[in-house]
Amino acid sequence: MKNFTCVKDLGDLQVALKEAFEIKKDRYQFCELGKNKTLLMIFFNSSLRTRLSTQKAAMNLGMNTMVLDVNQGAWKLETERGVIMDGDKPEHLLEAVPVMGCYCDIIGVRSFARFENKEEDYNEMILNQFIKYSGRPVFSMEAATRHPLQSFADLITIEEYKKTARPKVVLTWAPHPKALPQAVPNSFAEWMNAADYEFVITHPEGYELDPQFVGNAKVEYDQKKAFKGADFVYAKNWAAYADPNYGQILSLDRSWTVDEDKMALTNNAYFMHCLPVRRNMIVTDDVIESPQSIVIQEAANREISAQAVLKRMLENL
Amino acid sequence: MKNFTCVKDLGDLQVALKEAFEIKKDRYQFCELGKNKTLLMIFFNSSLRTRLSTQKAAMNLGMNTMVLDVNQGAWKLETERGVIMDGDKPEHLLEAVPVMGCYCDIIGVRSFARFENKEEDYNEMILNQFIKYSGRPVFSMEAATRHPLQSFADLITIEEYKKTARPKVVLTWAPHPKALPQAVPNSFAEWMNAADYEFVITHPEGYELDPQFVGNAKVEYDQKKAFKGADFVYAKNWAAYADPNYGQILSLDRSWTVDEDKMALTNNAYFMHCLPVRRNMIVTDDVIESPQSIVIQEAANREISAQAVLKRMLENL
Amino acid sequence: MKNFTCVKDLGDLQVALKEAFEIKKDRYQFCELGKNKTLLMIFFNSSLRTRLSTQKAAMNLGMNTMVLDVNQGAWKLETERGVIMDGDKPEHLLEAVPVMGCYCDIIGVRSFARFENKEEDYNEMILNQFIKYSGRPVFSMEAATRHPLQSFADLITIEEYKKTARPKVVLTWAPHPKALPQAVPNSFAEWMNAADYEFVITHPEGYELDPQFVGNAKVEYDQKKAFKGADFVYAKNWAAYADPNYGQILSLDRSWTVDEDKMALTNNAYFMHCLPVRRNMIVTDDVIESPQSIVIQEAANREISAQAVLKRMLENL
């Protein structure tokens, strides 16, 4: 595996899961693999879980790590040719990106959708520039359209807790006061489709995700219907994808908040969320504090997914 | 030792001091102890000495370190249940804190008194939330009411320089243009009482510290009387503790500045301060530059106190 | 070598180059040298290449690294004696600097010219305070008047690409929208003089550099004449040095931009720049993207120059 930006990069998911569980048994057993290898983590957006879990994963493998925090929007790179650079952009990406590649062996990049230009977001401009110009293997630490380290951790968690071979997994939209990217739901949908679970997406009308991610999922606009018989409920907010509302909040309807009444419709489902989560918007206190809530275990698996990915990338150097 | 927040956690001080001096002889002799162990340092307030000395101590022990700078006040965690989180707090501490615990073995926390609510400050709300919810051993890198790594370094320094078994140690208030927490003087008092030195606290009326920290110390309102025969003078500013003036500046009286005339009253005392220090407010240039000033040696011992604490915590994992 | 602030500190350049090429062959061969040694990197100005390359170099040598970002201008240290410190400066350098030295073995400092006071800039006040008061070996990660790690990397690069024993090297001024320090051109001139190449400096009138750096270089005000027969063209902007224009922009004349027509006058010269570079101000897209452009290779050598310097300093501890 050279780059890691989506589920396809992992190849056979069963093999990848086996490697992940092997790592989880003893996360220090491969600590020689990363010796004299350096991970550069570049954050165009702030991070807590992703930074800590990825850095921890790299250190488990014996890697050196360097973190570069690019102030949100403050580091403006010119991307066009022919521009007379006498304005606020001090550097061209064609110099900046290869130079960063000089000082490391693997690059992780976090760069969210900006909701300014849908095409630019969905073309993953920044991530792809690193892949094209850095000269190094690159992995996503959440990009504009996907968050594959999160989705891989989600998959690991479901495999750990599932009671049937092919559980019913429900991705449900829930309200949130700010407009959030579709990276997590897109990516989760992509991975659930690849894992071949029974997969249902439920959201208010207008919140349809990009069809390339929805894939074979069943889309159900009635949240209660969707929850029936669910083994896992995965809650997440996202802003609208479809034109002309791209990046807009269409609803703050708290009747979509996941509560005990709705969870009672499920097959004693586990509750999941990528965190951070706004309580009593996305989910009630009672549900997230219940024994069926596995949000902390899910977050803990971020270290495992990152380590499995880094291990593959190190082996491929 | 599981957590480290105050002098009691160390147990027998003579044993702890012996361990500290053992470390100081060769600070790399325990570099295998921290192998594959990760320290997460969380700063709710900025830091220079504490961050560098603690990180250095952890690296001396072979630990990996991660630093999380929480912009002052910018990371607002919800702490109540039942709140509809549609405002400026994006995360509840009941998710945030356990997740941070997932990615490390030991957590250091710095969180100052805010002077907004005396009860909240003196209950050590933030530090205690980490102890209660992180699932990891926690130590204070200066909390609202105590700065035990500083006090331990102070104790080590006094033991190195003292010329009698039971020296006279004077903690003196001195003026400062900003309102400062009582963490350092509280903690120093607690440790001096525990060390059973002859201990005197001197300050203008109105600056009385919390009696639980004053303990058996003699409180003397006449600074010159207090200095007589002192072996160590420990200067520090703090804002008022007693109601209704909690967190207020009551005096900027520079007649309390430590100068050569006052030091001449002592038993050729050593001068100490936790740094940073404002010259000619707290202490004159002449005194802090004199051979009796041991502020740099005291700061250097911050690495030793942190390493002794981390060593204990690692041994207890 | 104790400190490293200018070319003289390296001694015989041929020996230093030999060491650098030895490192480049296998940059991990000295990974035991830095064991239990800590590098503290202090940035008074922001950095990308310097921080990453120096940190990487230190890790290649097995060192621990700590980074201290001093917000631009935000950390104000008092430097005078006798001042009553009741204002915005919370600490005196005579405490701050020695304490930083306590927690590390080697200190790297970045501190640019501020263009507020020419004498202060050219006296290298901040860098020299660290040398004088930190108690540790200190190296420059770009100071007010020199950028020796850059110049050493430049020298390494020229040695790698030169086709004759004594190539013709041309340092050319080029326009830039902001006033930039003279550290890079000063330092480059100093190193080129020391390397005894055929060295020409070209710039508009008024942009004369400090004669102590110009040394034996030929100064040519006609850029095209200067370029004739050049083997290396090193472009860089700088603000005026000579009084009364110190720190001022005297020209934005884009006829000084390095383009293909001018490069055609050279002996098929290589194009160099320290980066970041503003395209179509300093150099056209065509030139910087041409096969003769070695700006990325030059940047990559920053790791090598830093490692050669750190290796020397470690050997001298």
Automatic annotation (TrEMBL), chains A, B, C:
N(2)-succinyl-L-ornithine binds at residues 142, 176, 236, 278. InterPro entries: ArgF'-like (IPR043696), Asp/Orn_carbamoyltranf_P-bd (IPR006132), Asp/Orn_carbamoylTrfase (IPR006130), Asp/Orn_carbamoylTrfase_sf (IPR036901), Asp_carbamoyltransf_Asp/Orn-bd (IPR006131). GO terms for biological process: citrulline biosynthetic process; L-arginine biosynthetic process via ornithine. Residues 184-311 form the Aspartate/ornithine carbamoyltransferase Asp/Orn-binding domain. It comes from the Bacteria. Catalyzes the transfer of the carbamoyl group from carbamoyl phosphate to the delta-amino group of N(2)-succinyl-L-ornithine to produce N(2)-succinyl-L-citrulline. Is essential for arginine biosynthesis. This is N-succinylornithine carbamoyltransferase. Its EC number is 2.1.3.11. It comes from Macellibacteroides fermentans. The gene is argF'. Homotrimer. HAMAP family: SOTCase (MF_02235). It catalyses: N(2)-succinyl-L-ornithine + carbamoyl phosphate = N(2)-succinyl-L-citrulline + phosphate + H(+). Belongs to the aspartate/ornithine carbamoyltransferase superfamily. SOTCase family. Carbamoyl phosphate binds at residues 47-50, 75, 110, 147-150, 274-275, 302. Keywords: Amino-acid biosynthesis, Arginine biosynthesis, Transferase. Pathway: Amino-acid biosynthesis; L-arginine biosynthesis. Residues 2-160 form the Aspartate/ornithine carbamoyltransferase carbamoyl-P binding domain. Pfam families: OTCace, OTCace_N. GO terms for molecular function: amino acid binding; ornithine carbamoyltransferase activity.
